[in-house]
Specification:
It contains 14 helices and eight strands. It is an alpha/beta fold. Helix 3 crosses helix 4 and helix 4 packs across helix 11. It is globular and about 55 Å long. The protein has one domain: 3-Layer(aba) Sandwich (Rossmann fold), CATH 3.40.50. Keywords: Hydrolase.
């Protein structure tokens, strides 16, 4: 985890320090992490990705190694504003995006902004992975409900009472039966959550899970109307956003491109089966290139 932190730098955005990493060479690839940890979740696929792409990533405000203001209204709008700020800082005009968990919702907002010409960059493609794209199919864990749907004082207390043992149980419940997290990974996740007293505001970030309800119609419409190539890579065993989410994607999205991993892979495919994630992502990129070439020839 220390080595991961040493890869990155921080940049001040609106008075807050935001942790980011930029590494590799080749086509641009922005990767977005999930809740409640940080970019460290991409560690197992990182080296392979930076061999093929210029990879950009950052820890959202309130998470990981970025600042964690306690009296702050966290929002998807702010996350997208930070994406745009960083992309301008990095000097990027266009990028592909790979996203997981909370990151898929940030991309949904970016897609809606794209249709309204509100981003400072062009999205070349989107790969979603195990996230709550559609709230009518999303099945949050009890700990998520308690942290994010309780009145703020109760959420604050529950965040304070969260122990490593409870966190371990919660994480284990969304991993596949044969790809359970190691004690080392649990310890690393625990340290990341507690960095800069982040555990104390876990309930504030968690509230974004249900804030998605306010954006569903606009986001789904954007996914249905965009011309940007998309795919959904899915660990089917995930009780939150597994096979049921993949099936809903097929129902709602025109010409759906769904790539299912092995049936016993859960919520964190990039940790549980990094080889297959890399394989499916490369397949998706080949499909985009083949389509582009066909359109060019036509």
């Amino acid at each position: 985890m220390v080595a991961w932190k040493n890869k990155g730098r921080t940049l001040e955005i609106n008075g807050h320090q935001v942790f980011y990493i930029k590494e590799g060479s080749g086509p641009n690839l922005l990767i977005l992490h999930g809740y409640p940890f940080n970019t460290f979740e991409w560690k197992s696929v990182w080296e392979n990705l930076v061999n093929d792409y210029t990879v950009f990533t950052f820890d959202y405000l309130g998470m990981g190694f970025s600042d964690k203001p306690k009296d702050h209204d966290y929002s998807f709008h702010e996350h997208c504003e930070m994406v745009n700020f960083l992309i301008e800082f990095w000097g990027i005009k266009h990028t592909h995006i790979l996203s997981h968990d909370l990151g898929v919702s940030i991309v949904q907002e970016l897609l809606a902004r794209d249709l309204a010409s509100q981003n400072c960059f062009k999205i070349q493609s989107v790969a979603f992975m195990n996230g709550g794209l559609f709230m009518d199919s999303y099945k949050p864990r009890m700990i998520q409900r308690l942290l994010s749907q309780s009145p703020k004082p109760i959420g604050k207390l529950l965040s304070k009472l969260l122990t490593k043992k409870k966190l371990k149980k919660s994480i284990q419940s969304v991993f596949g039966p044969y790809t359970q997290p190691t004690d080392k990974l649990i310890n690393q996740f625990w340290d990341i959550l507690n960095y800069n007293d982040g555990k104390s505001i876990a309930y504030l970030i968690g509230r974004l899970v249900f804030d998605k309800l306010n954006h569903q119609e606009r986001w789904i419409s954007a996914m249905q109307n965009t011309k940007i190539p998309m795919c959904f890579m899915n660990g089917p065993f995930d009780p939150n956003s597994g096979i049921h989410m993949a099936n809903r994607y097929k129902e709602l999205i025109p010409n759906p491109n769904v790539k299912l991993l092995w049936q016993d892979i859960g919520h964190w495919p990039q940790i549980e089966d990094p080889g297959s994630v890399l394989l499916y992502y490369e397949e998706f990129r080949r499909e985009i290139n083949n389509t582009s070439n066909r359109n060019y020839l036509d």
